[in-house]
Amino acid sequence: MVKQLDANIEKHKFVIEQNTLYSIVQQHKPRMKWLDISKFPCGKWYDNSNRYHGLPIQDYANQPIVIQNNWIVGNAAKIQRAKKWGHWYYSGKYDKCLPF
């Protein structure tokens, strides 16, 4: 797997996580289980733009465990969005995540 990652970095000069993961899955055929979208929704949860089983994503995934912080580019933008929604628990003062 590390060889595949190194090859991807050499080819593209940066890491493309989705391409690397896809290559690893295709080559090694690991046993996988998909995460339940109602508990682990994608980043589209934040703008409520996707629908699942006829419901807006925030209604379908109304008590998510983890919201994937995708569909937005850059760490600063991801941090800003997490803070806006009250999903930012890191404390610079204590250099750790605070309980919620």
Which characteristics define this entry?
mainly alpha, 100 residues, 2 domains, globular, 37% helix, 4 helices, two-stranded antiparallel sheet, two-stranded antiparallel ribbon
Fold and architecture overview:
- By secondary structure, this protein is mostly helical.
- The protein folds into two domains: 1-32; 43-91, no CATH class.
- It is 37% helix and 8% strand.
- The chain is built from four helices and four strands; from the N terminus they run H-H-E-E-H-H-E-E.
- The strands form two sheets. It has a two-stranded antiparallel sheet with strand order 1-2.
Give a short overview.
The chain is mainly α and about 100 residues long. Helices cover about 35% and strands about 10% of the residues.
Q: Strands, helices and their partners?
A:
Elements: H1 2-12, H2 17-28, E1 51-52, E2 55-56, H3 57-60, H4 75-84, E3 90-91, E4 96-97
Antiparallel strand pairs: 1-2, 3-4
Helix content: 25-40%
Overall pLDDT metric? 81
Say how many strands there are.
4
Roughly how many Å apart are the termini?
36 Å
Strand line-up in the sheet with most strands: 1-2
Unreliable residue stretches = none
- How many discrete domains? 2
**Secondary-structure class:** mainly alpha
